[in-house]
Amino acid sequence: MSGLSSQYGAINLSQGFPNFEPSATLTDFAIESLSESTNQYAPMPGLLELREQIAAMTARSFSVSLNPETEVTVGCGATEMIFDTIAAFVWPGDEVIIIEPGYDCYRPAIDAVGGKAIVYKMAAPDFKINWDEFANHISTKTRIICISSPNNPTGTLMLTDDMEHLYSLVKDTDIIILSDEVYGYMVYDDNKHTTPLQHPGLRERTVAVYSFGKTLHITGWRVGYAIAPQYLTVEIRKAHQNAVFSVSHPLQRAIARYLKTTNEYIELSAFYQRKRNTFIEVMKHTRLNPLPCAGSYFQLYDYSTISNDNDLSFCERLVKDFGVAAIPVSHLYSDFHDDKLIRFCFAKTDDLLFEAGKRLSKL
Description:
Elements: H1 2-8, E1 11-12, H2 24-33, H3 48-62, E2 72-75, H4 77-89, E3 95-100, H5 106-112, E4 116-121, H6 131-135, E5 142-148, H7 160-170, E6 176-180, H8 200-203, E7 206-211, H9 212-215, E8 224-227, H10 230-243, H11 249-261, H12 268-282, E9 289-290, E10 298-302, H13 311-322, E11 324-325, E12 327-328, E13 341-345, H14 350-360
Parallel strand pairs: 1-11, 3-4, 3-5, 5-6, 6-7
Antiparallel strand pairs: 2-8, 7-8, 9-10, 10-13, 12-13
């Protein structure tokens, strides 16, 4: 969709990245770091100064205490950390439960290592997990359960009750929880981010992944991290070492320095809630119907009252005829399940959001 958007000169609200610059202080630190003997490999697990800052921000934000030396690993974005976790623990024939609709990197990673993806499908429009139904997907071959909160694309959250249900299903097993929390700093309407790292029974079996690309508006820097207990971290680092070995040295140093000077991530929920509200307001003049969004920087819209087209065709028509790019939600299901829903990214400047709303008002 981004390629089609470029071809037609459309406003790109499809792929998940901001169109605004990060803090000038952060980029200044990156420039400084380039001249400070950072041209060789960083330590394989990540710069200790950055891992220490990650531990500090995790304690401040989620009240989770970490050992930065043994429980934090810096990777080439959250996607690499997801792949490394699956590569470390999944062997041919092992099963991994994934929840759909969801980020489309989970299944390819499972396929690549010979595992079997077991899909639990959430139902529109609420996209809640029925844990009794979910339990039927667990077998003696289940190695990992992959969860995501806030969910991409639905913006739904897993809450404390969800964690209790999850724990009741895995407490007597060796199942690992892979928790994708890249939007964990973007939670709205007085909700709080809930992570299995906070649950005493889940903490010792959880790998949680995060993205500085999302929290600091630097998706092109490709820096993320994984948090896990030491016995899991040891194995994840083996995969990481043989995948990329280490992550950009100067960029790690720049982020570490920046985190010492700012609490920007604390304000991120308020920042993006304003963006969400602005987008919903400008879209009131369209015939598209919004679904609730409690987190992430994605907003789903229902177009079923407008067209009978499948969602891919509808998104292609939005680009070609109206100059706005969105994502067809069916392509975030393994079976291309189509509820006539499309996903917009509202991590954009207000002028772009207003212009997108203006164009879509002509639908």
